[in-house]
Amino acid sequence: MKKALAALSCTLALMVAVYADPVEIQLWHYFSGPDGPWFEKVVSDFNASQSKIKVVSQMVPREELLKQYTIGLVGGNLPDIGMVDNPEHASFAAMGLFLDISDKIKGWEGDGKFFKGPWKSCVYNGKVYGVPHNSNCLALYYNEDMLKAAGVQPPTTWSELETAAKKLTKPGVFGLAICAIGNEEGTFQYLPWLLSSGATIEKLNSPESIKSLTFLTGLIKKGYMSNEVINWTQADVEKQFATGRAAMMVNGPWNLSAVKTDAPNMNWYLAKIPKDKVYSSVLGGENFGIIANSKHPAEAWEFLKYMSRPDVMENFAKNAGKFPPRADVMNGSTYWKSDRLLKVFTEQMEYAMPRGPHPKWPEISSAIYTAFQEAFTMTKTPEQALQDAQNKVDKALTK
Length: 399
Fold this sequence. Notes:
Number of helices: 19
Number of strands: 13
Strand order of the largest sheet: 2-1-3-12-6
Structural class: alpha/beta
Mean pLDDT: 92
């Protein structure tokens, strides 16, 4: 009888284990465009691949998401996994939102496989607080017919860029267009110039930093770049280029389709952003991290690993119009290399660096875009504008 009861007990235990509900993992993201359905496919494919974990994803508009993270740090209403724009990762890590997963990274097959820039955006104080999910960067677009007519080769240095912009500028056409609007979008476009000079965000008043702002301000003073750049978003810059009012522009891969649609008969191509000391671009994209107070960190880590698998990452990036942050995925695929335009962004990704990463990035970014707006409107000299920016950053860092 005892043996029968013991056998029955084991059978019931086995049945409970087999039919137990999966551990439910809550995930927040802000994919709301064409990338949304492709991310949901990653989630559904993961759920279908096993029975122990169920990821429940929720789309929350970006600004609302950031607000909910801040509120949740106090109230405790947070998911198990959260998405964040890469320049904001360090800020939330410093606030205690994300779990330190440094121990989980050791021995993981993805360790060491990511591009330097995307990986750096997940690191704060030497510890890893997440995994990069997708990336993008900036490159130089140019009108091939305009350059040919002016006898100009695609510029590779700042000196060549200024010479080209001068020859390309004529009534109704500026040699170069960039976005210099007073927000994060403008900072995103300015950073390649700052970093190429050898400057850093910690020393905005350095000679190198002043050189970068002086160079761009000079293009406006000489009439090679419109003073309206302070009002142009990256979408506005695309329209300037597509309508022939700018011979060259700096923009991202998200505007490739827009140029094709807006200027179907234009001959155009891409190049790396011209350099001063080194080639540079700026990193865009999102990261995912495990929320620090998650009750299921092990299960959350299983999803992050799945999401970061080469095959999963490649499929998402190709279909969602993104770039994979893993170097082995980018370099091992023919997709980005075979496309005449995408391959230039692939090359530029080698030089893409994150904004920051720094817990005070919002204040730093504000100081940067205020400085270049002041210089571009001739309100202040580049030296004055950047010294004031440095003062703001110093004040923010001492709070």
